[in-house]
Each structure stands twice: as C-alpha cells, then as structure tokens.
Amino acid sequence: MKTRKLGRTGPEVSAIGLGCMGMSGAYGPSDRAESVATIHAALDAGVTLLDTGDFYGMGHNELLLAEALRGRPRDSYRLSVKFGAQRGPGGDWLGFDGRPAAVKTSLAYSLNRLGVDHIDIYRPARLDPNVPIEDTVGAIADMVRAGYVRHIGLSEVGAETLRRACAIHPIVDLQIEYSLISRGLEDKILPAARELGIAVTAYGVLSRGLIGGHYDATKVLPGDHRFMGPRFQKGAVEANLGLVEALRTIADARGVSVAQIAIAWVMAQGDDIVPVVGARSRERLAEALGSTQATLSADDLAAIERAVPKGAAVGDRYPAVQMAMLDSER
C-alpha cells in the first residue's frame, strides 16, 4: 500500500482510506459480520486510515470499529473521528454543537466506545454557526496537549475558516466531498488548503455510489438516505447515469472498472489528496483498492474531462437545507 502524508504536520496514512458510515444504516440495513470482515480485509491490505463519526448510527459505528479493531496493535491504524452533529432518537438532524464543553464531552464518549486512549485525527463534522471556529479548535487543542488527540482536522469548511483555524493550531486535513461530479472545492478551498499545508481527505469520491458503475435504483434498500439527494431524483439520476456510461467507455478501454477510474481520478489531482471510500463489503473494497494501481496519463485525464466535464452533474450534492448549512458552499 502506498502512503500519503496528511498535511505538513500530520501522520503518514495509506493512500486510500476506509469510510465506515455506510456500515451503520446510512444506505439501508448492513451486515455486521460482513462489515467487520471488510474492516479486517482493509487492514490486512495495508489501509491505515479509518474514518467514522460519533453520530453514525448514534454510536453504532464506533462500537462496530471497536469490535473489528480488538487485538490489533494501536499503532497499526489511524482513527479519524467526526463529532458535533446532533441527532434525535428517530435519527432526525437537529444541528451542530461546537462548544468547547461539547467537544470534550463528545471526545470522552468516543474514546470509551472505541476502546482507545487517543484519537488520531479529531474534527467537527460541520462548522457551528453559533460558535467561533477559534473556540472549537482551541478546545480540541486542549485535548491534544492532554494527550487524548494527536491531530486536528476540519470538515466541509471554507477557505476563510481554514485560515482562522490554522491561526489557533495546525490543521492536518480537510475532509470534504470531492469527485468527478463534485468539484466545488477547486476554485478557492483547495488552493487555500495547499497554501496552508493542509491535506484533503476526500469523501463521496463515487458520489454515494452514483458514479461507481453499480447503481441500480431498483435495488436500493429501505432506509437508504440517498433517495433524498437531488442527484438521485427522477430526471436528474438518468442524466447523471449517462455521465457514468461515458466514463465506462474510457474505463473499459483501460481495462479497469468505472469505480476504479473515478477513484484514480481523485488520487491524480495531487499527492495531498487521500480518497476515503465507503465500501460496505469485501467485494467493493477489493475493487476500490485496485484503483491505487491505475495510473492515469495526461491523455486519460483529458478524456475523462471530456466525458465528465466540471459542472456536468444535474442536482446539488445535498438537499437545499443541508447545502445551506455548509460553510464550504458559502
């Protein structure tokens, strides 16, 4: 497994990370045994970056990771944990809490659920509009000095927020959606991150499976939140799947899958970018890992750009209410 460094001050991690959200109900019911087996397969293949959030399944995901990591040396993996999203018992979203007391309380619960004595990269899931980013980052910095956190990351924030946060404490990475059909960060956020020495951990590299080459609306499971997304609505999804077929032509000519070429495209945008793939099965994990061997030439990249030009997707990446909450979209 190749490695990439998270920013100027962060750790070396595998060139591809495993996002575990889908193992806790986000895309419908999941198989716990297969989830654990997938995490084990990722670790055995050299994946060292595991991404979770304390609100994924309201703690379910952290407990799942704890089970899968039991017996593994603590220095053999890096835990990236998001916090701050507030949810009700019915799974509804209630907002975000970035207050210093909430930072430390959330961390205490995560450490206990995960069964570890420190988190490698700790980050607020979103910017709390009612709390200065300096206060939130300052509280995490307190936890760094206390030894409970090793590094600080951010998620879905804009260039100005990145600069304000870096004035308080080094930020090693920005977790943000980035794919062939989600390229909004390229204009201002990515240049600012590079100026500040901040890596990007890219989630949604397959746009929640939409551009992975396997999406079938007739097989979506109950509880799959993707049906709420604008890109999956009638009219939009057909147009977006047309982009996938254009991409498939290029992938077939290269002898790789659509998912592999989409992930490889993200990796080709810079050594400071680490794709985080949300594989829920060993089969999908193996396919994703194959992307690390797919080197794209300048001609390949040009062909991909022609097939899926910037801004070609129909629909925003989140519903309007959630888009309005994103500091990265301001």
Summarize the topology.
Blueprint: E1 3-5, E2 12-14, E3 17-19, H1 32-44, E4 49-53, H2 60-69, E5 78-83, E6 85-87, E7 93-96, H3 100-114, E8 119-124, H4 133-146, E9 149-155, H5 159-166, E10 171-177, H6 189-196, E11 199-203, H7 236-254, H8 258-267, E12 273-277, H9 282-289, H10 298-307, H11 320-325
Parallel strand pairs: 3-4, 3-12, 4-5, 5-8, 8-9, 9-10, 10-11, 11-12
Antiparallel strand pairs: 1-2, 6-7
Assigned CATH architecture: Alpha-Beta Barrel
Report the span from N to C terminus.
Answer: 36 Å
The gross shape turns out to be: globular
Overall structural class, as computed from helix and strand content, comes to: alpha/beta
- CATH superfamily placement: NADP-dependent oxidoreductase domain
Order the strands across the largest sheet as they lie in space. Answer: 3-4-5-8-9-10-11-12
Q: What is the beta-strand fraction?
A: 15-25%
How would you characterize the largest beta sheet? 8 strands, parallel, barrel
Radius of gyration: 19 Å
How many individual β-strands? 12
Low-confidence region ranges: none
Question: Which CATH class is shown?
Answer: Alpha Beta
Total of domains: 1
Summed over residues and divided by their number, the pLDDT gives a mean of 96
CATH topology (fold) name: TIM Barrel
Order of helices and strands: EEEHEHEEEHEHEHEHEHHEHHH
Helical residue percent?
Answer: 25-40%
Count of helical regions: 11
